[in-house]
Design brief:
By secondary structure, the protein is of the alpha+beta class. Helices cover about 35% and strands about 20% of the residues. Strand 6 and strand 7 form a beta hairpin. It comes from Trichostrongylus colubriformis (Black scour worm).
Length: about 290
């Protein structure tokens, strides 16, 4: 990835380390409360949140941010819920829990607004498969990666380990993440997503182009169209002058106005000027 003064390159490969940055700091009482909540029937969601930040703008004194989040309901009395209870009650046991359709491999960061998924790529993944016919009732997120979580012991406390797995029904449409190059667990891979980033307009143009690139091009076409139309058409005010059959009478009034002004007969000049204005207001009399 890279950046210039005003623009960010078209895509970025984002790699997250599989280990959590800090140990999981939860008290024993809070952990017990979480386990009891999982054993109950209350609504619980697994949420994946992301935030992309653009370079700091010195003029605006701000750096634009784009956010998105996806949630998965952990339904009561389900196998997934039981697995969460087991992994929390036996921390460090090496158990792994899988959250299907939880993490997008491709993202679209617009020039403003929330992060979304790139529709053309999603359609290519879901409908251009040689050996798989996508069911009509399939989830919109069936191309999302499965997130695999485990809770490992470390010298500083419990640490969450995250790995992702591409859906098996879709092939040859994903870029495999590289393995980590540090520590002793080099069999782990980075958690990877590829973000397609729309170019951000310079601050000078941003307030005029808030509708995006499409709105900018539409405005440009409209302006150019009006300029071309102005070259080949005449306004109604000009038509009644340029297309008048005999302009001699109109020209005579203008000359008379000039002569009476030179003679300083201002009352007559006012009458002639009123007659001229009347003719302009009533083109039919011309």
């Amino acid at each position: 990835s890279g950046r210039s003064n005003h623009f960010i390159l078209l895509f970025q490969v984002v790699n997250f380390r599989p280990e959590s940055e800090v140990p999981w700091g939860i008290s024993a009482a809070s952990l017990d409360a979480l386990v009891e909540q999982l054993k109950g029937n209350s609504s619980i969601n697994f949420i994946v949140s992301m935030e992309f930040s653009r370079p700091y703008d010195q003029k605006k004194k701000d750096g634009q941010k784009h956010n998105a989040q996806w949630s998965i309901e952990i339904e009561p009395n389900s196998k997934l819920r039981s697995e969460w209870v087991q992994i929390l009650e036996s921390q460090g046991s090496g158990q792994t829990i899988s959250m299907p359709e939880a993490f997008p491999s491709y993202l679209l960061v617009p020039n403003e607004g929330a992060v979304t998924v790139p529709s053309p790529i999603v359609s290519a993944i879901q409908y251009n498969q040689d050996n798989y016919q996508r069911p009509k009732n399939a989830s919109d997120r069936d191309w999302f990666d499965t997130v695999k979580l485990s809770l490992a012991n470390s010298t500083d406390g419990n640490v969450w380990i995250t790995q992702t797995e591409h859906p098996s029904q879709y092939t040859n449409v994903y870029f495999n993440a590289s393995k980590v190059t540090y520590g002793i667990h080099r069999d782990r891979t980075y958690v990877q997503t590829i973000a397609f980033v729309d170019k951000a307009f310079p601050s000078f143009f941003a307030k005029y182009l808030q509708g995006g690139v499409i709105a900018m091009y539409i405005s440009l076409v409209i302006v150019v169209g009006r300029l071309i139309r102005a070259l080949f058409t005449h306004s109604p005010i000009e038509v009644m002058i340029t297309e008048i059959p005999n302009p001699d009478f109109l020209l005579k009034i203008c000359l008379d106005i000039y002569l009476v002004r030179e003679a300083k007969d201002f009352f007559l000049e006012q009458d002639l000027f009123a007659k001229l204005i009347f003719l302009f207001r009533s083109p039919a009399t011309l």
